[in-house]
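pinned: reference chain
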Amino acid sequence: MFELDKDTFETEILQSEEAVLVDFYGNGCVPCEALKPHILKLEETYGDKLRFTALNTSKARRLAISQRILGLPVIAIYKGGEKVDELVKDDATPEAVEDMVKKYI
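pinned: its structure tokens
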């Protein structure tokens, strides 16, 4: 999984024409840590069809706020530089993430 930061987010996500998944997580976020292995497993399964990336919002607070990331975890799909779908907090279950991934591959 490609680890984003405030310097690479624009080129990797906002300038990408293809669909990209972004796993927004933070330091000490227990639900984020619990979800991570499921995201990695989805990347193994679907990584040839969809790009998987992650952003530590603890290191990029302004960027997270600019993307309207107000709670964690958030799993979002960007396409053509726009956020087209997202799952927030309790909605970000492994099953829901997989269903969302399937919509964009």
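why pinned: The first strand starts at residue 2 and ends at 4. Residues 2-103 form a domain with the Glutaredoxin fold (CATH 3.40.30.10).
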